[in-house]
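As a warm-up, study this chain.
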Amino acid sequence: MPAALLALLCAAAPAAPQDGAALAREVQAFYERTRDLEAGFVQTYTYAAGGRRQVSRGTLRVKKPGKLRWDYEAPEKKTIVVNGTRLTQYEPEENQVYLDEHFDASAMSAAVTFLLGRGSLEKEFVPSADAAGRLVLVPRVPDARVAEVVLTVGERGEVTSTRVTDASGNVNELVFDHIRRDVGLDDRVFVLDLPKDVERVTAPGR
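Now compare it with the structure written out below.
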């Protein structure tokens, strides 16, 4: 067969389909090997009712064991910190804070806890890959919080974007940039020094 024709046929051949289970294991392995991580993010939340969209920007920091910090910079400042069993949500412009000293991080879905190398994507979700090579995760057990998760996965297994659709059709999308791994984050990053006059509030419905 002439070389030119062979090259043409090879170029036209469809790419091998991604194995969803293998992709899930690749993601899991990346975060299991990661001690800490920080990244910028853009979050777009689309409400099913009316299609209203809310766009936020900020920085995510993660450290094992069990530490997460989300610093929202726009459209308004807000910091959410999970440090073991303590959850803090601080809104400086309102000078108010919500504290949960008995936060059950184990109740969080693997759609979040994979960032900490915890949980099991394969055990909690049925994995597949879409035509774009993204990892699609559907809960094995119905969950109002998560109907479907779609993860865009980089070459090393790092997640560069997530899209979580809940049972009501609301969509929470996160796109990460400037992802840095194993930067040596200090534990003090996950401790908030709150103003003495901060107002403590309770969560809605409590």
